[in-house]
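Subject: design request, 369 residues
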C-alpha cells in the first residue's frame, strides 16, 4: 500500500480528489480534437459559473495565478490609465508591483491587514481624483483570509464609470460572483484553488468588447491575453504548449463541482470546514487574527502562541508527521500561521487536523494560556 498523501491545509496547491488525479492518467497532443474540446468545455463552464452570459469570454493561460493577473492588467489596462488599488495584504501589494513594472500610474489606498477595503473610502478616492480610470482589487486577500466587499465596490465603479478588474483567485467557486450587470470588467482565477483542480493554469473572464479592443497592447509576448484569445478562436488550440494534464484535471474537478451543487454547495462545505476549524482551534486556546465579520471561509490566520517554546517550523513538522500540512503566516508585522479549509476535504479532516495540532502542542510543551 502506498503511504497516504498528507492532507494539505493550504490555499493551493490543495488536496484534490482521486477522480481529479485520475483524470491525469492520459497523454494528449496539443492538436488533439478531444483535448481542444476539453479546453472549450472548461472555458464554457467557467463563464457559466460566473454568470458571464454572452458578454464575457474566458481566456485560459498557462502558469500560476500571478501570470494571469499580470496578463490581464498588461492586456486590458491602457498604459496611460490611472489605477486605484485598495491594499490590505500581500496580493494587493503584488498588483501594485505589477502596475509599476508595466509603468502604469497607480494610486494606493491602504487599509490595515485586518480591515476590509471600505467602499465609502473608495468612492471618496474616486470622487477626489477624476483622473482615476480603473480599480484593480483582490476579493479575498489570502494573506490574512480577509473578505473585501466586491459587490459594493463594483456598484461604485459601475455608477462612476470606472473599469474594475478583480483578482478572485481564492474566492472564485466558493463565494457567489455574478458578472452580468455587476460593474466588473474582468475577473481572474486559477485551476488549483476553490475549483479544486491542480495548479498550472490561470484564467481571465473578460468583457468581450474590452478584450477585443486590446490588440497589440500587451508588452509581453507570452502574457498577451488578446493574442491567446484570438489564436484560440481561430485554431481552437492554445497558442503555446498547453498544460494538458492540468486542463483534464480541471475538467474532472468542474464535473465534481457541478455535481456537488455548484458554488452554493462548495461555499457551504467550506463554511462548515471553517466553523469546525475555528471552533476546534479556539477550544485549544488559539485566537483567530480576523473578526468573524471579515473572515472568509477559505483560510484562517491564527496568532502564534506567545510561549517561547513555539516555532512554526516545529509545529509544522509535528503536524506534518501526523498527516496534515499547515501554512506559514503572511502578515507584515505579527507572528501568525494559517490553516486553509479548502480542497477535497470536509469537517472530519479538519477535526483531525485540529487534534493533530493539539497533540503537537503537548508533544512540544507549548502552552497557550
Ligand atoms: C493564490 C493567489 C494568487 C496567485 O498566486 P500564485 O502563487 O501565482 O498562484 C493571486 N491572488 C490571490 C488572492 C491568491 O490567493
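Subject: RE: design request

Done. Sequence follows.
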Amino acid at each position: 500500500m502506498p503511504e497516504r498523501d498528507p492532507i494539505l491545509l493550504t490555499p493551493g496547491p490543495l488536496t484534490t480528489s482521486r477522480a481529479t488525479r485520475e483524470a491525469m492518467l492520459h497523454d494528449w497532443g496539443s492538436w488533439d480534437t478531444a483535448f481542444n474540446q476539453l479546453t472549450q468545455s472548461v472555458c464554457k463552464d467557467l463563464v457559466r459559473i460566473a454568470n458571464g452570459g454572452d458578454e464575457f469570454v474566458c481566456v485560459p493561460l498557462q502558469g500560476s495565478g500571478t501570470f494571469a493577473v499580470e496578463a490581464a492588467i498588461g492586456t486590458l489596462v491602457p498604459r496611460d490609465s490611472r489605477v486605484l488599488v485598495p491594499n490590505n495584504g500581500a496580493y494587493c501589494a503584488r498588483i501594485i508591483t505589477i502596475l509599476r513594472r508595466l509603468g502604469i500610474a497607480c494610486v494606493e489606498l491602504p487599509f490595515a491587514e485586518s480591515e476590509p477595503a471600505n467602499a465609502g473610502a473608495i468612492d471618496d478616492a474616486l470622487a477626489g481624483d477624476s483622473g482615476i480610470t480603473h480599480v484593480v482589487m483582490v476579493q479575498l486577500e489570502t494573506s490574512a483570509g480577509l473578505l473585501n466587499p466586491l459587490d459594493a465596490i463594483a456598484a461604485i465603479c459601475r455608477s462612476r464609470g470606472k473599469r474594475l478588474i478583480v483578482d478572485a483567485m481564492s474566492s472564485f467557486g466558493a463565494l457567489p460572483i455574478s458578472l452580468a450587470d455587476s460593474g466588473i470588467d474582468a475577473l481572474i482565477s486559477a485551476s488549483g484553488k476553490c475549483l479544486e483542480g491542480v495548479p498550472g493554469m490561470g484564467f481571465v473572464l473578460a468583457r468581450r468588447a474590452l478584450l477585443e479592443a486590446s490588440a497589440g497592447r500587451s508588452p509581453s509576448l507570452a502574457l498577451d491575453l488578446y493574442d491567446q484569445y484570438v489564436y484560440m478562436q481561430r485554431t481552437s488550440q492554445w497558442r503555446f504548449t498547453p498544460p494538458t494534464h492540468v486542463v483534464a484535471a480541471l475538467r474532472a474537478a468542474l464535473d465534481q463541482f457541478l455535481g456537488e451543487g455548484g458554488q452554493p454547495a462548495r461555499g457551504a462545505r467550506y463554511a462548515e470546514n471553517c466553523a469546525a476549524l475555528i471552533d476546534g482551534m479556539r477550544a485549544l486556546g488559539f485566537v483567530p487574527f480576523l473578526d468573524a465579520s471579515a473572515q472568509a471561509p477559505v483560510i484562517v490566520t491564527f496568532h502564534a502562541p506567545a510561549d517561547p517554546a513555539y516555532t512554526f517550523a516545529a509545529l509544522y513538522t509535528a503536524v506534518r508527521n501526523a498527516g496534515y500540512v499547515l501554512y506559514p503566516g503572511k502578515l507584515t508585522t505579527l507572528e501568525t500561521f494559517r490553516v486553509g479549509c479548502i480542497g477535497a476535504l470536509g469537517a472530519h479532516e479538519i477535526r483531525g487536523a485540529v487534534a493533530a495540532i493539539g497533540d503537537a502542542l503537548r508533544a512540544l510543551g507549548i502552552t497557550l494560556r
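The first strand starts at residue 7 and ends at 8.
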